[in-house]
Design a protein that fits this description.
CATH class of one domain: Alpha Beta
Number of strands: 33
Strand content: 15-25%
Structural class: alpha/beta
Largest sheet: 9 strands, mixed
CATH topology of one domain: Glycerol-3-phosphate (1)-acyltransferase
Distance between the termini: 65 Å
CATH superfamily of one domain: Glycerol-3-phosphate (1)-acyltransferase
Helix content: 25-40%
Length: 838
C-alpha cells in the first residue's frame, strides 16, 4: 500500500501486537518492549506535543542513547508532523545547545544525563517517556495532514570535519528508500518463517539515518526485535549475541575488526591449530566452514549468522576473515544526504572489496574526476542553515557525494576515497589515501593508520600516521616494506607514530582527520605529536571532572584523582567501550596511575579472575529441589536452633515481585534467619550474594589441591549454588559481572539478598556499607527491604550452638525506593543509617 508518512508504519506495529520489538538495558535490568507498546507510546507522545502547543513544522531535539523511548518519540513526531532533530548521545553540550538555537527548537527531549543543558526550556525526560505520557489516550492518532514532502527530521552531521551541517530529510526521502526494500522482503517472508524471528543487535546510533534504517524501519518489516546496548567491548557484544539469540549484528567496520582481534587473541593458546584450520577453510562450502569453526559458533550462539556494517569502508582482510569463518558480511554504502543506502554488497555474490551494486530506485554515475553522483527520491534537497535553506543537489538533481569510486565489469561499485582527501603530488600524480592505508594495514606490526596530505610547494605529499601494536616497534623498516609494495608515485616519504592508543573518532568511529592533521602539523615545530588532549585523558577527565589537559600520566588514581571503587568500574566500562578491549576487573583494580592504565591498554593486562555464574540453578528442576529444601531443611533448622522473634513482617504483605533484601552480617547462618523471617512466597525466589573469592575457590581450587579435596570442594560448591541459589559478589574485583548477573536474576523474577558490609562484624556493630549496594539499589529499580538481626552476635561470642527462644530478634523495615540518578555512596550511607536504627 502507498504511504504518505512514516507514521503510517505504526499500523505494522499494531498488527505485530505483543511480539517483542526492542530489548535494552536499564541499569542492570533488561527491559523489553512489544510492538504495541511502542505504537501506544508514540500515539501518547503525539498527543503530548499537541497539549504543549507544538505543531506541524515545529522542531524538537532528541538527545539520548538508543532506546525504545527514542523510537516512540521519533514516531510521535512523525505522526504529528513535528520535525525531529536527533543529536548524537556523545555530542558535547555546546554542540547540542548550538543546534537547539539554530533550529529554534520548541522542546528538548533528552536522557537524564543531558538534562542540565541550558536550552531555556524545561527538558522532557526521555528515560521516563512512557510514564510521562500515560495521562494521554493510547488510541491511534490520525495523520491525515502529513504529506511525503513534509520534513521528517533534520540530521546534523559533522563527519570527520569540524563544520556541522543539518540535512533536511522528508518523509518522502525515507519512504522512497523503504519501498523497494519492502517489495524485495515480501518475496522472502515465506522463507523467513523458518528462522523467525530475525533478531538485530544494533550498535549504530539512531541519530544517524543508517542506524535508523536498521533500528527502526527495516526490523518492523520482518517482525523482528532489535537489541540496543551501550557497551561496545567485544566480550559484552558476544555475550549479548549469545544471550539474546541475535541473528544479525549491525555495527561500524571497526567493531568487526575488534571482534576479529578478540577471536585471534582467544586462539593464542593454540594459534597454530587455528591458523591451520583457517587456511584449510578457504574455498570450502559454508556449511563445512560452520563445522570447522564450531567452537566460535558456540561462542556467538548458533542463531547468529550475519554482520551488516556501514558508516565507513570495511577492509578486505576483515571481510575475508568473517567470510572464511562462515558468516555473511553485508556492507552498505550511503550518506545522510542520500537518506542512507545507495548500494549494498550481496554477501554470496562476487564482488569482494567493493561496496556492492546500486539499489533499485537510485541512479548513480561517475563524474569525469571519478566522483560518485547520485540522483533519486531518497536524495535530500536542502541543508539547514539558520532559518535559510541551501540546496543539496546541483544540475538536474544530481548530488555530488564527494567520494571517488569506480565500477568493475560486473557493475560493482568500488570506493576509492574522499575527493577532498585525494593527494596531488608535486609530480602531478593523484594518490588515494585509502590505497596507501590498505598497504600499511597489511603489515603485522600496524594496529591502525591514517594517511593525510601535507602541503609541499603548492601541492601535497602523503604522510602516514601510525598506531603500532607494540610501542617498541621500529617504524622505519615497516614503512620500507610498505613503500616497496607501492608504485613509485604512491610511496610515502614521511610518517609519524601517534602517541595514544587510538585516534580521536566520530560517533561512527571514523578517525577525525582534521584533528590528526592539526596535531601532525603542530609537531613539525615541537618535534613530536602532542595532542592537547587524548581520548584517554578525555575519558579520565569525564569520570573525575578534571580538565583533560590537566590529566598527567603520573597522576595517582586514588590520591590525585580521588577515584573510588565505583569510579573505577565506570572508568573500566568507558575504556573498554572506547578502545574495544577487555580489561577485566582485576586489571583495572591493579592500576595505580594513569601510566598503569596505558600499559593495560598496550597489552599488559593483569591476570584476570573468572567467576562462575551458574544460570542453571534458576531453572527447573533445581528450583523445585530448592523449594523443598526451604520447607524441609532451612526453616525447620532455624526453628530448632534459634526460634527468632520477628518484627515488621506485616510491612511485606503488599510486597509483590522482586526486592533487594539487605541485612547486617554476623555469621554464616544469617541467610537462613533472613529467609525464614520473610513470607515463603518471597523466600523461595531469593538469590543470595556471597563472597566471590571463597565461592570460586570451591569451584576452582588451586592446582596443588589433592584430588579428593577437589571433589569435596566441588560438591560443596554444587550444593551451595543449587540449594541456596548463591552467586559470587567479589570483595576486590569482578563487580561488573556480579552486578550484571544480579540484574539477570531480577529479570527472571528473583529477589536478592545482599550483606552490604561485605564481611562479618567483629564487635557487633555495623561495618561501613560498601558503595556497591548503592549502585545495585540505583540500577535495579526494585524495592529495598532493610533487615537487622539482633542477639546473634552474643550467641556466637558465647560459643553456644542453640539460642533461647526470642533471644534472637529480626527487625524488618519498610520497603524503600530510590530515584534514578541518586549518588550510590549517598544511598549506601542512608541504608546504613536505616539498618542501624532498626
Amino acid at each position: 500500500m502507498e504511504r504518505n508518512s512514516i507514521g503510517a508504519y505504526l499500523e505494522n506495529f499494531l498488527a505485530l501486537g505483543n511480539q517483542p520489538a526492542y530489548v535494552q538495558k536499564r541499569g542492570y535490568r533488561t527491559v523489553r518492549w512489544s510492538y504495541r507498546e511502542v505504537a501506544n507510546t508514540a500515539f501518547q507522545f503525539a498527543r503530548e506535543l499537541d497539549t504543549r502547543g507544538i505543531r506541524k513544522g515545529d522542531r524538537i531535539l532528541i538527545w539520548g542513547p538508543n532506546s525504545a523511548e527514542w523510537v516512540a518519540a521519533f514516531y510521535g513526531c512523525a505522526l504529528s508532523g513535528v520535525v525531529a532533530v536527533p543529536i548524537d548521545d556523545i555530542s558535547t553540550p555546546d554542540f547540542a545547545a548550538s543546534v537547539f538555537r539554530s533550529v529554534s527548537a520548541k522542546l528538548l527531549l533528552c536522557s537524564r544525563e543531558h538534562c542540565e543543558l541550558n536550552s531555556g526550556t524545561k527538558p522532557f525526560p526521555l528515560d521516563d517517556l512512557r510514564e510521562a505520557v500515560q495521562r494521554h489516550s493510547a488510541g491511534p492518532y490520525a495523520t491525515t495532514d502529513v504529506r511525503a514532502q513534509d520534513t521528517l527530521e533534520i540530521v546534523f552531521t559533522s563527519g570527520t570535519t569540524s563544520e556541522p551541517k543539518g540535512v533536511v530529510i522528508t518523509h518522502g526521502n525515507v519512504l522512497s528508500n523503504i519501498a523497494p526494500l519492502e517489495t524485495e522482503i515480501r518475496k522472502y517472508l515465506k522463507y523467513e518463517r523458518i528462522v523467525h524471528p530475525i533478531r538485530f543487535l544494533n550498535l549504530l546510533p539512531l541519530s544517524h539515518v543508517f542506524g535508523q534504517f536498521l533500528g527502526i524501519f527495516l526490523p518492523q518489516l520482518l517482525g523482528g526485535p532489535v537489541v540496543f546496548q551501550t557497551e561496545l567491548n567485544p566480550s559484552e557484544v558476544i555475550s549479548t549475541i549469545r544471550r539474546e539469540r541475535v541473528s544479525v549484528l549491525v555495527a561500524v567496520p571497526r567493531m568487526l575488526e575488534s571482534l576479529k582481534e578478540k577471536i585471534e587473541r582467544d586462539a593464542t593458546e593454540d594459534a597454530g591449530r587455528f591458523q591451520q584450520e583457517f587456511r584449510n577453510a578457504k574455498g570450502k562450502h559454508f556449511l563445512h566452514r560452520w563445522w570447522i569453526f564450531h567452537d566460535i559458533r558456540r561462542k556467538f550462539g548458533w542463531k547468529f549468522w550475519a554482520f551488516i556494517c556501514g558508516g565507513a569502508a570495511l577492509d578486505s582482510e576483515t571481510e575475508e576473515f568473517w567470510d572464511r569463518l562462515g558468516y555473511a558480511v553485508i556492507q552498505g554504502y550511503g550518506l545522510t544526504e542520500t537518506t542512507s543506502l545507495i548500494s549494498v554488497k550481496h554477501p554470496f555474490r562476487p564482488g569482494k572489496g567493493s561496496i556492492g551494486q546500486v539499489l533499485a530506485g537510485r541512479e548513480v554515475k561517475l563524474a569525469p574526476n571519478g566522483e560518485i553522483m547520485v540522483r533519486g527520491g531518497g536524495v535530500a534537497s536542502t541543508y539547514w542553515s539558520g532559518q535559510k535553506a541551501q540546496p543539496v543537489t546541483g544540475d538536474e538533481g544530481w548530488y555530488a557525494t564527494g567520494d571517488i569510486g569506480e565500477f568493475d565489469a560486473k557493475g560493482n561499485l568500488h570506493f576509492k576515497g574522499r575527493s577532498k582527501d585525494v593527494i596531488v603530488t608535486p609530480a602531478g600524480m593523484k594518490v588515494y589515501p585509502d590505497d596507501l592505508e590498505a598497504a600499511i594495514r597489511r603489515q603485522p606490526e600496524i594496529k591502525d593508520c591514517v594517511v593525510i596530505a601535507l602541503p609541499v610547494a603548492g601541492n601535497a605529499q602523503p604522510c602516514a600516521v601510525l598506531i603500532l601494536r607494540e610501542p617498541d616497534y621500529d617504524s622505519a623498516p615497516i614503512m620500507k616494506r610498505v613503500n616497496v609494495s607501492l608504485a613509485e608515485y604512491q610511496r610515502i616519504p614521511s610518517w609519524q607514530v601517534w602517541p595514544d592508543k587510538d585516534f580521536p573518532r566520530t560517533s561512527t568511529q571514523k578517525p577525525r582527520k582534521n584533528v590528526i592533521r592539526d596535531a601532525v602539523l603542530a609537531s613539525k615545530s615541537s618535534g613530536g605529536i602532542e595532542p592537547a588532549s587524548t581520548p584517554l585523558s578525555e575519558l579520565i577527565a569525564r569520570v573525575t571532572g578534571r580538565v583533560p589537559s590537566k590529566v598527567s600520566p603520573h597522576d595517582n588514581l586514588q590520591r590525585d584523582l580521588n577515584l573510588s571503587s565505583l569510579d573505577r568500574v565506570s572508568l573500566q566500562g568507558a575504556l573498554e567501550d572506547r578502545y574495544h578491549v577487555d580489561l577485566g576487573d582485576a586489571g583495572i583494580a591493579s592500576a595505580n596511575t594513569i601510566a598503569d592504565i596505558e600499559r593495560l591498554l598496550a597489552g599488559e593486562p593483569a591476570a584476570r579472575v573468572y567467576y562462575h555464574f551458574p544460570e542453571w540453578v534458576q531453572r527447573w528442576p533445581v528450583t523445585w529441589i530448592r523449594d523443598l529444601a526451604q520447607i524441609f531443611l532451612i526453616r525447620p533448622a532455624v526453628l530448632v536452633l534459634a526460634r527468632p522473634e520477628i518484627a515488621g513482617k506485616k510491612t511485606l504483605m503488599d510486597l509483590h515481585g522482586s526486592a533487594l533484601f539487605i541485612c547486617n552480617h554476623i555469621s554464616d547462618i544469617d541467610f537462613a534467619l533472613v529467609l525464614s523471617s520473610i513470607p515463603l512466597r518471597l523466600a523461595n525466589q531469593v538469590a543470595i550474594a556471597t563472597a566471590g573469592e571463597i565461592l570460586e575457590s570451591l569451584h576452582s581450587p588451586p592446582r596443588e589441591t589433592n584430588l579428593w579435596r577437589r571433589i569435596y570442594d566441588r560438591i560443596r560448591w554444587t550444593l551451595g549454588v543449587s540449594l541456596l541459589n548463591l552467586f559470587p559478589l567479589p570483595r576486590q574485583a569482578g563487580f561488573k559481572e556480579s552486578f550484571a548477573y544480579a540484574g539477570q536474576s531480577v529479570d527472571r523474577g528473583y529477589s536478592l539478598l545482599v550483606f552490604p558490609e561485605g564481611a562479618h562484624t567483629l564487635d557487633g556493630n555495623l561495618r561501613p556499607f560498601r558503595a556497591g549496594i548503592g549502585l545495585l539499589a540505583n540500577n535495579l529499580k526494585i524495592p529495598v527491604v532493610p533487615i537487622r538481626i539482633h542477639g546473634l552476635f552474643e550467641v556466637k561470642k558465647s560459643g553456644r550452638r542453640f539460642a533461647r527462644p526470642g533471644e534472637i530478634r529480626i527487625n524488618i523495615g519498610a520497603p524503600l525506593k530510590f530515584e534514578s540518578g541518586e549518588d550510590p555512596q549517598a544511598i549506601a550511607e542512608q541504608l546504613q543509617r536505616i539498618v542501624d536504627q532498626l
